[in-house]
Amino acid sequence: MAQIHLNPVNPPLGVFASYCVPKQTTLVMKEKVWSLSGDTFHIVDENGQEVVQCRGQTFSISDRKEFADAHGRPLFSLRTKLLSIHKSFYAEAPDGNEIFQVKGKFSIGTSKMIATFVNQSNGQPVELLVKGDWLDRSATITMNGAVVAQISRSYFNMREIFGGQQTYYVTIAPHVDLALMAAVCVCLDEKENEK
Q: Cα separation of 165 and 74, whole Å?
């Protein structure tokens, strides 16, 4: 995998200040095979340290996934927005408030999504463009044309072919919310799985 260098983002970008770390970070997100709870991901950094937990909920109408910190404390629930034309998602904090949305957009030959939220560091509304090319096995997340994260998938191995498991590498710029970028990657995976 080629080394990617992303420029720091200022002010910090995201909804969870504690996940806006001052160094570039690569998350390794492995979809767990044979999980009884639906799509569950093991999410660690490049040093093998757990960053966030993502557990799918069995028999959930809205395809709910629970995100928690490394100690199991709830961060948010990621849900599929029902009755939307393009596959879309929203995240709810434990108190029930919506904290971000990721909406699918029509696109030929690529996957395209828009993530929107209020930036926690400065209170400004933010729109991120997520554009993926799964034939090329990659996606880019940009803000106003600047790359804030790069997603790539590992090349197929037998477990991925027969078990439906994917491994994603999400390289995130310094001061960008790791939990938010992990959630955006899960949204993109869900959108691709519906094809």
A: 25
